[in-house]
Amino acid sequence: VIRDNFGNPISYSRMASETAESYLGRIYNKAGVCSAESSCCIAYDPLEPSCESEVYDDCDLGDNCVYPCENLKLGIVEGYKAFAILYDRERRMNADLGVMCPADFDDSCPTAEFKAAYANTTLVGLIENYKVKIIGTKDSLVSLASTSVGGAMAEVEDF
Predict the structure, then answer these.
(1) Separation CA 94–CA 130 (nearest Å)
(2) With contact defined as beta carbons under 8 Å apart, do 76 and 23 qualify?
(3) Which residues fall within 8 angstroms of residue 68, CB to CB, at 6 or more apart?
(4) Fewer CB under 10 Å: which end of the chain, C or N?
(5) Is the pLDDT of residue 105 over 90?
(6) Mean pLDDT on 88-95
(7) How many CA atoms does the CB half-sphere of 45 hold within 13 Å?
C-alpha cells in the first residue's frame, strides 16, 4: 500500500482532471517513515491519531516522523516542469523549421511568433523559395551569357 503524507492510501492511477504536474506531486507525496517507536503517528482519523508504531512504519506526524523522499519529490516535479518547457520549445522549433509539423500541435506551422517576426512560411519554405529564385537568376545569367557570346561569335565570323 502506498500512502500520501497524511497516511491515506492512494493509487498510482491518474485521476480524471489531474494535470501531469499534480499527478507527479501526488504519487511522490510519500508518507513519512518512523525513525523511532515513540512520537511517530499516522492519522487515519485526525481526531484520534494512532501513535503506536514501529521503526520504518508509515507516519504523518510526530517528532520521530521523517520525510526522506520530500527532496526527491520536489526534484521530480521541478524536473517535469523543465521537461515540459523544453518539449514545447522543441515542438515550436520543428513547426518553425517546417521539416515536420507536429501532428497534435495546437499552433500552426510556422508558429504565430515566427510569422510575426519573419514570414508566413516555414524556414524550409523560405529556403525553397530562395532556391527557386537562385535557379531563375542562374538561368537568366546563362541565357544572357550564351546570347552575348553567340552574338559576338557571329560578328567574328562576319569580320
Answers:
(1) 20
(2) no
(3) 33
(4) C
(5) no
(6) 89
(7) 3
